């Protein structure tokens, strides 16, 4: 009889507690939607600051209902974790300093991130005219040595094009490039346009671009 008592029982290795039965989470309470949404937002904010619109997009992609998302974002706003004005200011400062972006490019980026025009303009206006020109000058001086073998016409076109892609307006681009070219040794034009002719052509192109942009 004693030899048969253990039949049908699962034997547990010596020194190891028996494992609890697997219920597959059947008794777990459903996750609170607002807690889930809050966790999603905090995870997104861990990597970098984000605008309210970016967080709302992140919640929508994860299937969070609009009313739940709104309540959670309002609470995060109330405690200062969602602040589009602070986000815009930080974004502008970082992108202008590290990427050398001009005001036009910064305005476009903030628009794509859902920051309203007034908030974006306030942040961008923190960049003074002199600061913008100084940053543009740094970009030109960094690029200028690679253009040493080109005449002023080619060099000016490429430099202005670079600044335009960075979001600088035509007036800033022309002034900075003209100043940079006037301080370098002019290569032999070999029958090409003179330095003054090249700079005049540059100014005309800049004025035309400004008229089209305005």
From TrEMBL:
Acidic residues bias locations: 21-31
Annotated organism of origin: Actinomycetospora chlora
Family: Belongs to the RecX family.
Gene3D superfamilies: Winged helix-like DNA-binding domain superfamily/Winged helix DNA-binding domain
Stored Pfam families: RecX_HTH1, RecX_HTH2, RecX_HTH3
Keywords associated with the record: Cytoplasm
Domain RecX third three-helical: 131-177
Domain of life per record: Bacteria
Name of this protein: Regulatory protein RecX
Residue ranges the record marks as coiled coil: none
Domain RecX second three-helical: 83-123
Region (Disordered): 1-35, 182-214
Major location (coarse): cytoplasm
Ranges for domain RecX first three-helical: 37-76
NCBIfam families: PRK00117.5-4
Subcellular compartments: Cytoplasm
Physiological role: Modulates RecA activity.
Cross-referenced InterPro entries: RecX_HTH_1st, RecX_HTH_2nd, RecX_HTH_3rd, Regulatory_RecX, WH-like_DNA-bd_sf
